[in-house]
Amino acid sequence: MNPVIQQLQNHYSIRDFQEKPLSTEQIQELVKSAQAASTSSFIQAYSIIGINDIEKRKKLSAIAGNQPYVVKTGQFFVFVADLARHERIAQKLGSSSEALSSTEKMLVAIVDASLAAQNMAVAAESMGLGVCFIGGIRNAIEETADILELPPYTIPLFGLTVGYPVQSSKPKPRLPEAAIYHEDSYQFKDDSIAAYDEAIQNYYQKRTNGDRVEAWSEQISRFLERPSRLDLKQFIEKQQFMKK
């Protein structure tokens, strides 16, 4: 197994960081690595906002469920689906920006930002740093957008906290390949889920010394019973997306 594959397969989220900021050079390398990701039709429809202001970090942490590792970390980045610069280009050149309001262009921006973020995460781990994605900034997306001073044609998607881990851990078992990988057509494979439920139960039991014993299917069932972030559609439309 080559080092890149080994690093990818050993990934796990870090939720306890040293109070040691990343250097300017490290941040530049991480952003440059993010920018090297593939981008649809070369439109590069995303922005990355580094949050240095501790008060802003505290506000974003509160939105995300009071996650302390948003504040105590090397750097906190927010990835934004961004077509605002494209709208400005259209204005300057006197061309129509109508296409920017389509659902397709929104998806393009979301995919572009996600690919860039994954590149940054891989780069960070190759530097001996740890990462954790923070989707909780969407818990109050309007407030998040206000904190970041976002214009129309932008959506704050998620945060990425990057820093020096306090301690190491082990990857959480993923779904078996049989459940994820399909050939030629989609196929339900319930037997692979049953085996995975048992593996996750064993994982939690060992990790928590028996305090938590829960199958993956039980997690998913509980997750689906709690509708969340129901203000997203209204916010997205306010930002001029999904009009067609």
Automatic annotation (TrEMBL):
Its EC number is 1.-.-.-. InterPro entries: Flavin_OxRdtase_Frp, Nitroreductase, Nitroreductase-like. SUPFAM superfamilies: FMN-dependent nitroreductase-like (SSF55469). Keywords: Flavoprotein, FMN, NADP, Oxidoreductase. Residues 10-164 form the Nitroreductase domain. CDD domains: NfsA-like (cd02146). GO terms for molecular function: oxidoreductase activity. It comes from the Bacteria. Belongs to the flavin oxidoreductase frp family. PANTHER family: NADPH-DEPENDENT OXIDOREDUCTASE (PTHR43425:SF3), OXYGEN-INSENSITIVE NADPH NITROREDUCTASE (PTHR43425). This is Nitroreductase family protein.
